[in-house]
Amino acid sequence: MSTPTTVTGEVSPERDCPSNSSLVRLVYRRNFLLPIGEVWAALTDPDTLGRWYGTYTGDPDSGRVRLTMTDDHDSATTDVQILRCTPPAGFSVDQDGWLLEVALHQVGRTTTLEFTHRHVPRSEAGEIGPGWQYYLDRLNAVLTDTRPPLWDDYLDLVDEYH
């Protein structure tokens, strides 16, 4: 087991909550030397999404799909409500109560992905944070055609998210 060398997520107080709230947001940024359309496709195309995160059934145009995780350590099925979708700039979804936002920006040949998990209880950030880092590293592996990371390598990152 080794600790991943990727950038961890940023934990910060949630903006739209009272100052004494225990809710935080987890923010991750990744840069890809790819056109924005290719990164968008990896986030929304069912076949590509299934290679790093999960597959979905249903029609996204209806605003709802069912997502089944496709990783060895997680095969849960959840309901996803699509709250906003503005291709290829981003989207926001409610995945079984988790508010997730994706924003994409391209400058020159580089596309920046900003992924935010909102309204996370601070006490759960250490459990949730390494998971998103793992999945974003899996996305990177798909986009760069490299070996995907191993989940066990992320277990030691819990303290990075407190």
UniProtKB/TrEMBL annotation:
It comes from the Bacteria. Residues 35-143 form the Activator of Hsp90 ATPase homologue 1/2-like C-terminal domain. Gene3D superfamilies: 3.30.530.20. It holds the Pfam family AHSA1. Belongs to the AHA1 family. This is SRPBCC domain-containing protein.
